[in-house]
Design goal:
With 310 residues, this protein is mainly α. It has one domain: MetI-like (MetI-like fold), CATH 1.10.3720. It contains twelve helices and no strands. Helix 2 crosses helix 3, helix 3 packs across helix 10 and helix 10 runs antiparallel to helix 12. The N and C termini lie far apart (61 Å).
Length: 310
């Protein structure tokens, strides 16, 4: 009797697929970068410290508005220059205002200047660098020589001239600082675009008849986001330092508003008799700058394409 014909063994639908046929869950570049960032303990600690400082400033400002904490702009001349613990946790200034509450409001102003001015500089730098790198040739050469000329100008003096010409207010401060901090971003994006514009996905977009603006901002710019994000985190502390220098010179945030820079200026003027006016704003400002720089270094390592091969 002939043996029965062999039939391929099909998996039983009720038993599921065999182990070797299980679908492996995919991942993404963002998830890989986050996993690498989590391994950097210093960067994660700095991230949580920054979150805590921002939350503390927000909560302190809200409590002051609700009347639970003293008003940052309310003068009490009978309580001026009180040391820490004498009615005020961190002491009072020359007008009897609570230093702790002023630090909370000053932190919000400093973070606002840092973030908004950085966004302005990032927008200008990304657009300028992407256009220069994509067009290339003489246009690229002329645009980059303009950047070199602006690099030769002292930033602080340029911002002081802009503030003196247009006046001193918070919005103009955002724009003035953002208008001089975009040069390095433009160079970074230009270099990335020069290396990307010859790749296959750009040639495919050109063959499909897409416009140059669509190719630049829908295909090239998104592929430069890694270096852009890294340098943006490093631009925020640079902008905050520049705002502190301007406030120290009297060209930054104007009274009755305050920033950490103005508080440091007021503390430096009276450091011989009221050292706490300088120590507390300087300490929180220094911690914030260190955390921003360490977080930027961590992001740079996490988003580095070479590290994904490890």
């Amino acid at each position: 009797m002939d043996p029965a014909p062999l039939s391929p063994s099909l998996p039983d639908p009720g038993k599921g697929l065999p182990a070797e046929a299980e679908i492996v869950q995919g991942t993404s570049l963002g998830r890989d970068a986050w996993l690498r960032l989590r391994k950097n303990r210093l960067a994660i600690i700095c991230l949580w410290v920054l979150v805590g400082i921002v939350a503390l400033c927000l909560i302190g400002a809200l409590l002051s508005k609700a009347g639970i904490l003293p008003d940052a702009n309310e003068n009490h001349l009978d309580k001026k220059l009180l040391p820490p613990g004498s009615g005020y946790l961190l002491g009072s200034d020359a007008l009897g205002r609570d230093l702790m509450t002023r630090i909370f409001f000053g932190g919000l102003v400093s973070f606002s200047v840092g973030l908004v001015a950085t966004l302005v500089s990032t927008f200008i730098g990304v657009a300028y660098g992407a256009v220069a790198g994509y067009v290339g040739g003489r246009v690229d050469a002329v645009m980059m020589r303009i950047v070199d000329i602006l690099y030769a100008m002292p930033f602080v003096i340029l911002v002081i001239v802009l503030m003196s010409f247009f006046g001193s207010n918070l919005i103009l401060l955002f724009l003035a600082i953002g208008a001089v901090e975009w040069l390095t971003m433009a160079r970074i994006v230009r270099g990335q675009v020069l290396s990307l514009k010859k790749q296959e996905f750009v040639e495919a977009a050109v063959s499909l008849g897409f416009s140059h603006w669509r190719i630049i901002f829908r295909h090239l710019v998104p592929n430069t986001m890694g270096p852009v994000i890294v340098y943006t985190t490093l631009t925020v502390p640079a902008v905050m330092r520049l705002e502190a220098v301007l406030s120290f010179l009297g060209m930054g945030v104007q009274p009755p508003d305050s920033s950490w820079g103005t508080l440091i200026k007021e503390g430096a003027d009276r450091m011989d008799i009221s050292l706490w006016l300088l120590v507390f704003p300087s300490a929180i400002f220094a911690v914030t700058l260190f955390c921003l720089n360490f977080l930027g270094d961590g992001l740079r390592d996490a988003l580095d394409p070479k590290s994904s091969k490890d």
